[in-house]
Amino acid sequence: MKRFLKDSVLGDKRYALLLADLDQTKNDLDSAYTNLSNVIEPDLIDCYIYEVKSAQMRYKFLLSRIKQIEDSYAKNPLEVSSS
To answer: CB count, 10 Å around CB of 15?
Structure first.
């Protein structure tokens, strides 16, 4: 049963897209932190602070959506629509 659950979640296109977005957001967050640590101009500091905050919020959102999909499959994988 555990294998069926894992195959179902991994086969879901929405889930795959969310994982790809999460990976891209992690890269964006790493880049924003790197840029923030390398600037001294006050305007650029503000810019990268906003960029870091934005990436953090997106990362948190994507994680919650991924968890929501995983939880829906864990409850009953047969009731989840494939759309």
So the answer is: 17
* Count of other CB atoms within 10 angstroms of residue 23: 11
| Alpha-carbon span 74 to 83, nearest angstrom | 18
The pTM (predicted TM-score) of the whole model is 0.73
Per the CB < 8 A criterion, the answer to whether 47 and 35 are in contact is no
Between CA 18 and CA 24 the distance in angstroms is: 10
Looking from the CA of 41 toward its CB, the CA atoms found within 13 Å total 5
Tens digit of each residue's pLDDT (9 = 90 or more) over 28-76:
999 999 999 999 999 999 999 999 999 999 999 999 999 988 887 777 6
Contact between 9 and 36 (Cβ < 8 Å): no
The radius of gyration of the chain's CA atoms, rounded to the nearest angstrom, is: 17
What is the number of residues in the chain? 83
